[in-house]
Structures are given as C-alpha cells and as structure tokens.
Amino acid sequence: MKILAIETSCDETAAAVIEERDKAPAVLSNIVSSQINIHKKYGGVVPEVAARAHIENILPVVIESLNIAQSNISDLNYIGITTGPGLIGSLVVGVETAKALSLALKIPLIPINHLEGHIYAAFDNKKPEFPILTLLVSGGNTLLILMKNHLCYEVIGQTRDDAAGEAFDKAAKLLGLHYPGGPAISKAATAGDENKYKFPLIDLTPKPYRNKKGFLQKPETSLDFSFSGLKTALLVKVKAEVPLKKKQINDLAASFQKAIVNNLVKNSLIAIKKYRPKTFVLSGGVAANELLRETLKQKIAKDFSDTVFITPEFKLCTDNAAMIGIATYYKIIKDHYKKQTIIPQPNQKLFSDD
C-alpha cells in the first residue's frame, strides 16, 4: 500500500509518500515548501498571497515527494488530503489538486482533518497505548483531546480566545521581534531572565456557589485555556518601559514564554490526574518549543510514572504532509472514510470516525 498525502491548510505546501511496512506506516518522503520568507515582511500570513504560492508550488512538491520516495505515480493506491481547518484559498488548492489526481489515477481520495494529522504525527515509528491524552498546541489551536481508540476524539479542553501559537506571534510583534513569533520568542528567551516579570496562571473554573437549597456547590475544574489576558499583561508591561532595551526584550520574552508554558502544563497535569491516560502526546507547531517539551516530560515522569510522554520529532511538529499520510493510513485500516464529504472546510471541527 502506498499513499500520497497533501497538506496546504495554511502557508506550507507539503506532500509525502507513506508505505505500509510490518502493518505500520513508514514515511518514504516528506517534502515541505515553506512560505516564511514570503510572509515575513508582512508580519504574518496573508491568505491571498499564500494561496497563490500554493498554486505555484503544489505540483513541483508532489513530484519531488514521489522522486525522493523512488515511486511512480502509478504506484499509488490512495491519496490523503487536508480538508480543514485552515485558510479557504489554501485548502482549495490542495483539495482540487488531490481530486484531479484521484480522478486521473482512479484511486480513493481520503479527507483528513488537519488537527488529527497533528495527533497522528506522534505515531511515526511508534505505537502509543490507549487511552491517549493529547495537548495539541499550534498557531490556530490549543486543545486537550482524549482518545480511547483510533479516530475517536473527545475535546476535553480548549482555548476560549487566542491559541498559544497566536499569543506567541502577537507577543513577538509587541516586542519588535520577527515572524514567526514562537521561534523568535524562544531565541530571545535564551538570553533573558524568566523570573524578571510576573504573569498569572489562568484558572477558568467557575467559583463555588449555593444552590436553591443553600448547599454549597463546587463546579468541576475547567480544562479550558485563555491567553488573551497574558497578551494584554505583556502589552501593559511593554508600554510601561518603552523604549525597550535588548535586555528588557529578552527578559520579557523569557517571562512570557514561561507563563504560556506554565498555563499549558497546569491544565495538562490536571487532565492526566483525572483521566489517567497510558500515553500523553504533545503535538502541533508549539510542541517544538523546548521549554514546553522538557517541562512536560519532567513533570509527567515525576508525578505520573505510569503515563508515557511522547512528542513528534521537530520536523513533524510544524505543518507537514507525513502526519496527514499517517492519519490516512489509519483511516484506511479502520475503513473510516468512504462516506465523508471532500470539500474545503476552513472551520472544520475535530470529529470522531466511530
């Protein structure tokens, strides 16, 4: 079995070839054409510019992925394509290309949610044990997802405003750092003092209240996140110290990064205690943040030794097609794809395939 996977949800044009080996997916190629240099001058992704770049890059990227995998297009048995969530123009380019290839080759086309692709990136060369708890942290999403089996997702926590990656991007802009914000903040933080500025731990759990009979009721602990307040707190500190010197920028970056990580870790540990997963997965673009990776790894090893911590290698954390191909493989194995609609869905939710 050979799968061609295509990913164009945002500003990365990606294609990969996946092959079944020993009843598991093996990545033969994973090609990513980045648009970072194009969008850097704008300080963020411009949707129309991204879509045009995808049009230029999609076929060369697909051809290169086949060449690296030493495969002919006639060797393919399936095509996996990201249908959402993402930028509508970017998604359209990938979906229409995949549809054309599927029709020409007369092979099945399988829709994949971008978020489940990030989850399944952790299944590269691994077979995590269920139940699995995933912290998915990216530029557009911050989610805690419980999986009791393949393709069965329950969102148990999510951001109520900004995603963590979005908060990093906006923080970098406030500090005068370059795009993308996450790596820029991390780099500046290496020369800063993370304890110089204080940012709060956000708890969204409702306060206890008395019911109609006068009995005190304690609401269930919330696993949701909020990062807009941290961003506002950073803005206040920046305005109080303008013009910023390099030392202040580094200290603010380090302190802000620590605050984001602390809030992510806090809810993750509460969720592990409640659900007792056998595996904890950290995935998404922000999973490449070394402070977040190391903090979660150490905390879980110390407090929850029965839970195995795994995270994809760095190249599979950011948007790529290998993760889409791995998710496609499991949809094929579980035969969960034939009735799904294949259209671009910019606001597509993560849903179970059971």
Topology overview:
Blueprint lengths: L1 E6 L4 E10 L2 E11 L1 H4 L7 H22 L9 E7 L3 H18 L3 E5 H7 L11 E6 L4 E8 L2 E7 L5 H11 L6 H9 L19 E2 L5 E2 L10 H14 L4 H30 L3 E5 L6 H14 L4 E3 L11 H13 L20
Helix pairs in contact: 2-3, 4-10, 5-6, 5-7, 5-8, 6-8, 7-8, 8-9
Essential attributes:
single chain; 354 residues; alpha/beta; five-stranded mixed sheet; 10 helices; 12 strands; 40% helix
Strand order of the largest sheet: 3-2-1-4-5
Q: Helix count?
A: 10
* Relative helix content: 40-55%
Query: Mean pLDDT across all residues, rounded?
Result: 95
Task: Identify the overall geometry.
Answer: globular
Radius of gyration: 21 Å
Structural class: alpha/beta
What is the strand content? 15-25%
- Give the helices and strands as they follow along the chain: EEEHHEHEHEEEHHEEHHEHEH
In the predicted model, the low-confidence regions spanning at least 5 consecutive residues are none
In whole angstroms, how far apart are the ends? 23 Å
Question: Biggest sheet: strands, sense, closure?
Answer: 5 strands, mixed
Please report the total strand number as a whole number.
12
